[in-house]
Amino acid sequence: MASSMTNPTAGRFAGLPLRHWKPQLRDDGVLVLYFDRADTAVNAFSQDALIELGDVLERIALELPKALVIASGKASGFIAGADLKEFQEFDRKGTVDDAIRRGQTMFQKLAQLRCPTVAAIHGFCMGGGTEISLACRYRVASSDASTRIGLPEVQLGIFPGWGGSARLPQLVGAPAAMDMMLTGRALSAKAAFGIGLIDKITESANLIDTAAALALKGRVRPFKQRLLAWSTNTFAARKLLAPQMIKQVARKAPKAFYPAPYALIATWQKSAGKPIRARLDAERRAVVKLAGSATARNLIRIFFLTERMKGLGKGDAHIRHVHVVGAGVMGGDIAAFAAYKGFDVTLQDREQRFIDGALQRAQALFEKKVKDPSKRPAVAARLISDLNGEGVAKADLVIEAIIENPNAKRELYQSVEPRMKSDALLTTNTSSIPLDELRPHIARPAQFVGLHYFNPVAQMPLVEIIHHDGMDAETERRLAAFCKALGKFPVPVAGTPGFLVNRVLFPYMLEAATAYAEGIPGPAIDKAAVKFGMPMGPIELLDTVGLDVAASVGKELAPFLGLDVPAALASVDASKRGKKDGQGIYTWENGRAKKPELPAGYATPDDLEDRLILPLLNEAVACLHAGVVSDADLLDAGVIFGTGFAPFRGGPIQHIRATGADALLERLKALQGKYGERFAPRAGWDNPVLREPVV
């Protein structure tokens, strides 16, 4: 940091009880104000920290330094944003307006200081961290790969409310600013510099010195940046750009489900030409309204569920080398993704042609994910073809991903396990077979477990860790840490048929197949599910997963759940398995389903949505009752991240609470009377958890 510093507390800050902000005056007259929130490992703005910031800024305004640098006192990063637990509490008390107003006021004090101000950013800079940097005159960022700058509030059902939406469009121009806020996407230091958000990039060791030098010397922004910032916020530009933004957002986020991006666009369109005070007021009013919505409350709840799942993977997984047996779509993609994430991977199959196909798919993944072409060869080199399985002896983790046949899997384990290291873990990616059927001949059951990925591996964020009675707790911890290293969310589940996600999803997909067999058009079925909030309709999903895979899962699950499998799934044409063959229920071209038009005048049955969704809810209740997961929160998280279940609804159990368990139970019984026993309420509808108030 600075070459020499003096203690400022004897002077201008005397008498201030500073817990979170640490001022240090440099010899060059630049004051560095470090945010080091007390009693936390990560900087996040609490109201207490904001109030203290206001006190410090008032003292600074009375005796101005030559310049002010805002920096983090924590090695972990700059500022993660607002304290969301505190935000939830303000929502419960109805005082969100006060909290938003306070943040805006404190950052405006910073913006109005009559000396140069610079934010010195390293590591994560999210939400309120980005907003305080926008209140500074300049911004300097560390060149480290860990530096990420973002405004992710839209992912929580709101948008930046501490001046971010009021200032960013004026700084970098509306297109770049709105893209950043509407997607919630975080930028690297280089990308942030490219749009004009960052003024200078430097080595982390020189961050404070560079920030101080910039503050003292100043910088004139390039004319092109200034022109873009002005021209894209004019009345004419707003009138032209806003409808285009709305159209782009509508492709992914229906307004009825996700109001935040639309409110952001509307607020910008109406207020961008006004003075800062008016822009802040418009921002505050819109964010306060959004904060009280069910969508925001559910998305914030989901954020905490993701933090909980991340917390399961504490410590080192002690996994460096991964050996995957089975180079099909799942096994090959599991291997490729592990290599992309930095693991050494060997990939085995019974024939070289299967491995070659997986390696080709892996190259496509690396080209998409690794932006720097010069780095792709090193990533690809981590994925090694291993026809003879020589990697087994070196592997810390062996993942079996062969066909869904218990006998084939048991034979493989008897061949592989004797060659494994004593501390290596043996896992299966089975999607439905109970682990009790697979473990009888396992020599080290404590180190055997299910590790169930979802397709497509590179996109789906969840991995189920499947328990059995003989599994060791350390095995679960290591695998949770491995999932964390992959950037996946682990959810521990019982080893019963279908585990959690497939067990909950199967009745939904089966009812869709049944409705299709009855003559209801596939597009009508898909439209009903998407209208509810599912990311994809169940008929399209069946084709995407593969009709053969669905049939295999059905063979395991249908008897367990007491359900009948329609003929279309019981017997699948080997050349028409869905998306992967270009033909299934739909015809597929260039990775997209060609859905036929609905017949003229076709009326979708009124109860179709209930027929699809209530079986899913019914099985979720049964899973909770049976202890497939430890609690309702993990169940909701697992189903959201494993199936894409409408996030704005908060998960199956949260949706039951919000809609009313008794009302849904009556609708389920009505379907039972009309369609038969497959709609009979499962055990668990009397669980008090289902009737807890929605908060």
**Helicity level, as a percent range?**
40-55%
Going by helix content, strand content and strand pairing, the class is alpha/beta
- The number of E-state strands comes to 21
Q: Assess the beta-strand content as a share of residues.
A: 5-15%
Globally, the shape reads globular
* Total of helices: 27
What is the CA–CA distance across the termini?
45 Å
In round numbers, the mean pLDDT is 94
Strand arrangement in the largest pleated sheet = 14-13-12-15-16-17-18-19
Largest sheet: 8 strands, mixed
Query: How many whole angstroms does the radius of gyration measure?
Result: 28 Å
> What are the low-pLDDT stretches, counting only 5+ consecutive residues below 50?
1-6
Give your account of this protein's structure.
- The chain is α/β, with parallel strands linked by helices and 695 residues long.
- Helices cover 47% and strands 12% of the residues.
- The strands form four sheets. It has an eight-stranded mixed beta sheet with strand order 14-13-12-15-16-17-18-19, sandwiched between helices. Strands 1-2-3-4-6-8-11 form a seven-stranded mixed beta sheet, with helices on both faces. A four-stranded mixed beta sheet has the order 5-7-9-10.
- Helix 4 crosses helix 5 and helix 14 packs across helix 15.
